[in-house]
Design brief:
- There is one protein chain.
- With 195 residues, the chain is α/β, with parallel strands linked by helices.
- Helices cover 36% and strands 16% of the residues.
- It has one domain: Glutaredoxin (3-Layer(aba) Sandwich).
- Strands 1-4-3-2-5-6 form a six-stranded mixed beta sheet.
């Protein structure tokens, strides 16, 4: 699907952001394409969630490529602090991370906030949520290649959640705020399968 983000909605999202309001989760303005970014380095695993690292398109591709030596299922959630649906689902994602981390789930949270928010708004939100998963901020000039690197059927709307098996196959995806029971069921199948 080609991305088509009307300028009016992008302008409305900017006005809402300046006024301190979050854009609706399922409008085109919540897509990745609503903001321009600059390139940044890929940062390795193991950082505290409040230490948000910046990645570029190549960094995202490295995350999506499965290391054949890593048998863990990979959960990736794309979100932003200005997205109502993202904020709504985040406590459920934190609980899922807490419940499955020791059972072998690799969870990476990809923020699509502005790069200027990497040391302020994003880590403040993560602290408020008591998040512990790895968090990166995607910083790209053109969002369309990043969107297509993840999923050709994704239009960039947030939130978006993907669960990959050990071979890199998508076994669960959901656009909008997740239904925790459905995601947990999908994770359970992968975690049980590797034991």
């Amino acid at each position: 699907m080609r991305l088509r983000f009307p300028l009016l909605l992008i302008g409305l999202a900017a006005v809402c952001a300046l006024a301190g309001f979050a854009a609706p989760a399922q409008t085109p303005s919540t897509g990745v394409a609503s903001r321009a970014r600059h390139s940044g380095p890929f940062v390795p695993d193991g950082l505290d969630a409040t230490e948000v690292s910046e990645i570029d398109l190549e960094g995202l591709k490295k995350i999506l490529q499965r290391d054949p030596k890593d048998p863990r299922p990979l959960l990736i959630n794309f979100w932003a602090t200005w997205c109502d649906g993202c904020r709504e689902e985040f406590p459920d994602l934190v609980r899922i991370d807490n419940d499955y981390r020791d059972r072998g789930l690799n969870f990476i949270s990809v923020s699509l906030d502005e790069v200027t928010e990497i040391k302020t708004t994003v880590p403040d939100f993560l602290k408020q949520m008591k998040a512990q998963m790895r968090v990166v901020l995607l910083n790209v000039k053109d969002p369309e290649p990043a969107i297509h690197a993840v999923d050709e059927t994704w239009d960039g709307a947030l939130p978006a959640t993907y669960l990959f098996d050990k071979d890199g196959k998508v076994v669960f995806k959901y656009f909008g705020a997740i239904k925790p029971a459905e995601l947990r069921s999908a994770i359970d199948k992968l975690v049980r399968g590797k034991q």
